[in-house]
Each structure stands twice: as C-alpha cells, then as structure tokens.
Write a structure and sequence with these properties.
There is one protein chain. Helix 2 (17-29) packs across helix 3 (32-41). The strands form nine sheets. Strands 8, 9, 10, 11, 12 and 16 form a six-stranded mixed sheet that branches. Strands 31, 32, 33, 35 and 38 form a five-stranded mixed sheet that branches. A five-stranded mixed sheet has the order 34-40-39-36-37, with no helix packed on it. It is mainly β. Helices cover 14% and strands 39% of the residues. Dinuclear copper ion (CUA) binds next to loops.
C-alpha cells in the first residue's frame, strides 16, 4: 500500500509545469546541478526551456508530459469508446480530458431517451431490457478505423450489437445461436468484414435438455457475423471455453484464448491442466468448408457449423500456452499475437508469420512462440505504443508493465537481456488497458487507459457501491506517468481511443435507415406525411395512432381524444433543424417519455388509462416557452 500511496501523491502533483519551472530555476542557480538537468532534458530543448526552465511542448512530450487539460471551448484529441458493463451501454469519453460526452443505450433501458421502451428499440431488443457489454471495437478499413460502426458484445444475452457512427445510435442487435456468454469479439482489420465472437460458456451442443451431464457433448462456438448485414455467417464448434478474441491485419486468422482445455464442468475440473491454448482459426479454410457444405447444423439454428473439436487440423490450431490465458492482442505491426497469462506471470508472444507453417504441419504449434517474458502477477491485457513497446495490465500486482517486444524475443534465448522497461502502480486491480489507436496500425503512443476494477479510497465515499476507476496515463515518454483518475459507473470492461479526425457523426438526424423504414411503413398505411401531418387515426375498436409534429415551442396537436383502454401509439416528428434542439414526449401518469432529436421521428405505445384529462408535455428544454409546450389527452369512457 505504501508504494501505491507514494505514487498517488506523485500523481497529485502531475501538473508539473510549475514545479518544473521552480526546479529548473533552482538548478540554473546551482551550477553543475543545473548543467546536468539541462543535459537530461536533451540537446533539442528549446532555448526558452534552457534558460527559463519552461518546458517546450516537444521536450515535454519526449519526457512523457503531455498536457491533459482541455480548457473550455477546446475539443479533445480522441474519442474514447467505453463499454458499460452491467449498465448495458456504450459511453463516449473525450480523451485526454476524460469528460463523459455521451451515453449510448444499447442493450439496456434508458429513461432519458426512451431507449428500450420506444417501439423500434423494443423490436430490436426483442423485449429484453438488460445486458452486459464488455468489448467495444470499431469497424476497420486497411488496418485502421473507418469511422462507420462500433460493435459491442452482450455477454448476458449472447448477442452482438452495433452502433452506427452516423448518429451514434444502436442500429442492429444479433442473437448468436448455440452460444452463451458471448465474450471476446473482434472485427477483421483489412476491411469491414466479419466480426468474430467467442462464446465463453461451454454448453451441451445442441442445448436442448439432452447431454446435461455429459461433458463430452459440451462445446463452445467461435462465430462469424457479417459486419455490414449483421447476419451470422458461420460458426466453428470447439471444445474449450473461449475468452478474448483478436484478428490479424490480413484477414487470414482470428485468435481466441481458451481456458478449460480440460473440458471440465466444475471449477476444479477447469483448472486441472498446466497448459491451455491459444486457438488460431484459419478463416479462408473455414470459409471454404462452409461453401463446400462440409458443415453440420446444431439444434434449431440453420447456421452452418464447422466441427473442429479434437485434433489440430486445417481449420484450427491450438498453441499451448500457460494455463488460463486471458487477453490476446495483436501488435500494430501485425507481426505478433500476444497472449496474457492470467494465472502465469508471463505473456506469450506468437509470431503470426509462422502460422502458415503451423497449419502446413512444417512446424509444431508451440514453435510459433518466440518470446515469453515475465511481466508480473496476473497479466490480463496488452496495449501498444507503435514504437515497439507493449503495456500489459497486471491484475494482482496492480501495475502496468511496459516492456519491449524485440528485447523479449532476444531474452527468449538470452537470460542476460531484460525486456522490462518500467512498472507503474495503478489503483487498484487493473483489468483491461488500452492505448491511443493501439488496436490499429496507427498506434501513436500518447495515452493509455488503465481500467481499474476497484476505486476504494480514490474518490469521496459514496456508500457501499463504488464506481470503478479509469486512470489516464501519459505514455509519451520513456516512463509512464499517471495523470488522472476517472470514476466510471459500473462497469466498463474495455475501451478504445480513436483519433477524432476519424469520426464524423451527423448533427441533424438523417431520415433514413431501418428505423425510418418502420415509421414510413406506418405512415404509408395511414396516408400520412410524417413531416407535415398531425392526425389521430383509429385503427379499429381498441387501437389508435396519433401522428404529431413539433416545432419549438409547440406541438401541432393541442389535444386529442381516445377511449379508456385504447392501445395508443404516439408517432412524433421533430421538424426543427437546429443543432441540439431536441424535443420529446411525456404523457403524464402513463410511463411514456422519449426524446425526439432534430428532424427525427420516434414512437411509443401505451394503454390509455381511466377516463379523464392527462397532460402531455415536451420534457426536453427547447425554448423560453418550453414549459408551455404541452397538450391534453382526453380519455373518454
Ligand atoms: Cu420542446 Cu421542450
């Protein structure tokens, strides 16, 4: 704890410019000491820095002192996409300020926007209201983010969801058949192609009540979903539990860490063997098996399944790694897949260029391992700076270990080489870590996030449930530097940091896509122009549709009449085209409340209550007369 406290004190002084200034001035006055201080700053220090002790931006970067302050009116350099864990959402943070800019409801219900309760999102979520989002990854083209989609897993529901970056709204949710605990996901990186999804929980295959106690019949699926259509293309059936997932940069291989290669169904049974595997999937070979029909069907699903249980072969190779590995990450050069030990203090470096030989049987799977450095107790995930260094999160030690990949490869055959560069205390028990652009070929080595599972004493005491602590670390210099603690509502698992020039959302709703197809289909049926008409349409004995437009600060309908017990569908269109001018619809006493953004349409359905007058109002502040933006629903007996 003392060490932790020491570095926490250090981190409180992270606004070092004033301290450096003081130190620099003293050094200048102190002759020899001053000369050494200048030498340490390097020959390129600006004269300003040399003579007055003021660090130039360039010199500061060299030493690892990026500015993380983003003053009012300035924008962050990175979009940070965070998963929301049990909250079922995705969050967007600005990095380096760590300001939370947006929450995107995905597999949850959200009272503010009506997500999970409005008609379209209920359809998308098939009536489910919760989920567990762990891993966020964006779509790629040519090894870097193309700014089109964000994918996220739902571990609880066994689903893959997608957010469209045009509106930053969830636009697709895919149920994965024969799979429970969908955990690691990763999109292909050469183009927006497949998104590979790992099932963490082995289940009987098929899971229909037979084989409940027969571990032999258990298996897990590595599933390929088309990143454009979001349809399931194929699955590979495998014996062990699949944990994290990664892809190469060529579109040839995907990787999955596997624990429980023993095939146990109890904890004891799962931990028996000393070694588990890194599964390597040969995507073109699997694709070929699928197109040639060398597949099976499992259960009620019509998705083709390649059964790759048992021996290594043309579809799957198993690289032995120390038991219960967790993360697998591919470095920005695309050369290495790095697999973190979790129960072993090592990370295993696999040379991807050797995998063709492994599949061809020219070398053994283990021969693809080119390094296995010791990085600390409980290594989980690895991030990269694009300069050949790796940063591994170490859960039990609560540190981030910075190590050099090339040196680790040297050290594999030469004990005298030490690949470890620096260890930084984090607070406490770090899970995922990720760095700016780390999962792309454009990794830029500026910022690293440590997603700590416990915040303990780092924030004001707010009762038994603590926020997590997402820490911002400057990795621009030789040594890492902790600069910011960020409380996060439970429980982000992972995040990616994306350069801001790669993301271009719309400010006004583009009236297109499957959600609008749905509203247009209603309108067409009723002869309505959504952008002009406000009308009450009776759809039979017990069903009413209310089309209503809004322009600040009025609804086009000041009142409408329905009968008690009617199923009422409100379809509201916001005609304002002004940035940030959202309206919404709240019906008193009816549990109806949703947002309608500029030029958007949304709908929600409810049952009209007892006879009487019910006020509806716009719940979003839109105008000086926002409070007056309301109307009466008159419910007749
Ligand atoms: Cu419209 Cu408030």
């Amino acid at each position: 704890m003392t060490d932790s406290r020491k570095s926490s004190e250090k981190s409180e002084n992270s606004k070092t410019s004033r301290r450096d200034f003081m130190r620099g001035s003293v050094a200048l006055g102190a002759g020899v000491v001053g000369a050494r201080a200048l030498l340490e700053q390097g020959p390129e220090s600006s004269s300003l820095e040399k003579w007055f002790g003021v660090p130039s931006a360039e010199a500061a970067t060299r030493r690892g002192e990026l500015s993380y302050e983003v003053p009012p009116g300035k924008l962050d350099d990175y979009y940070g996409f965070w998963s929301g864990g049990q909250s079922g959402e995705i969050r967007i943070l600005g990095v380096p300020s760590m300001r939370e800019i947006k929450r995107i409801p995905v597999v949850n219900q959200d009272a503010a926007t009506g997500w999970g309760r409005d008609d379209y999102s209920r359809k998308l979520l098939a009536g489910r209201t919760s989920g567990d989002t762990h891993h966020v990854h964006l779509s790629y083209t040519d090894g870097t983010y193309d700014g089109r989609y964000v994918y996220v897993n739902d571990k609880a529901g066994g689903r893959l969801a997608r957010v469209n970056c045009q509106t930053m709204e969830c636009d697709a949710v895919t149920d994965i058949p024969n799979a429970q605990g969908t955990h690691g996901i990763f999109p292909q990186r050469h183009k927006t192609g497949l998104v590979l999804c790992n099932a963490e929980f082995r289940t009987p295959q098929p899971n229909d009540g037979r084989d409940l106690d027969n571990p032999e019949a258990y298996g897990a699926m590595h599933t390929a979903i088309n990143g454009e259509t979001m349809e399931v293309e194929w699955q590979v059936l495998i014996e062990g539990n699949l944990d994290l997932c990664a892809t190469d940069y060529q579109g040839k291989y995907s990787f999955a860490t596997c624990y429980n290669s023993e095939g146990g169904v109890t904890l004891e049974g799962m931990m028996a063997a000393d070694r588990d595997w890194l599964y390597v999937f040969n995507l073109p070979a699997i694709q070929q098996a699928v197109s040639r029909g060398k597949t099976i069907r499992v259960g009620e699903s019509s998705v083709p399944v390649v059964d790759a249980r048992g021996e290594n072969g043309e579809y799957v190779q198993r690289i032995p790694v120390p038991k219960s590995p967790h993360g697998v990450n591919v470095d920005p050069s695309g050369a290495y897949a790095i697999c973190s030990g979790k129960l072993s203090p090592t990370v295993t470096v696999v040379d991807i260029s050797k995998l063709d030989d492994v599949f061809a049987g020219r070398i053994k799977p283990r021969d693809a391992v080119v390094a296995e450095p010791e990085v600390g107790l409980g290594p989980l995930h690895t991030a990269f700076d694009g300069r050949g260094n790796a940063y591994t999160s170490i859960f039990i030690d609560s540190v981030i270990t910075k190590w050099n990949i090339a040196k680790a490869i040297e050290a594999f055959n030469d004990d005298s080489v030490d690949p470890i560069i620096h260890k930084l205390d984090v607070h406490y028990q770090v899970g995922h870590t990720n760095a700016s652009m780390s999962e792309t070929k454009d990794a830029d080595g500026k910022w690293l996030i440590a997603l700590c599972k416990f915040s303990k004493d780092r924030f004001l005491n707010v009762g038994p449930l603590h926020h997590e602590n997402d820490q911002l670390i400057d990795i621009s210099g030789e040594k890492m530097k902790l600069v910011h603690d960020g409380p996060a509502y439970p429980e982000p698992h992972d995040c990616v940091l994306v350069r801001r020039d790669l993301i271009h959302p719309e400010k006004i709703t583009p009236r297109s896509g499957p959600r609008f197809d749905y509203y247009e289909s209603l309108a067409k049926e009723d002869g309505i122009n959504l952008e002009q008409d406000s009308k009450v349409i009776r759809k039979g004995e017990k069903k009413v549709r209310v089309y209503i437009t809004s322009v600040a600060p009025v609804f086009a309908l000041q009142e409408f009449r329905v009968k008690s017990g009617d199923e009422v569908q409100i379809i509201q269109t916001n005609l304002d085209s002004v940035e940030d001018l959202s309206h919404g619809f709240c019906m008193s006493q009816h549990d109806v409340n949703f947002v309608v953004n500029p030029r958007d349409t949304r709908s929600m359905t409810f049952i009209a209550g007892k006879p009487g007058v019910y006020w509806y109002y716009c719940p979003w502040f839109c105008h000086a007369l926002h409070l007056e933006m309301r109307g009466r629903m008159i419910v007749e007996a």
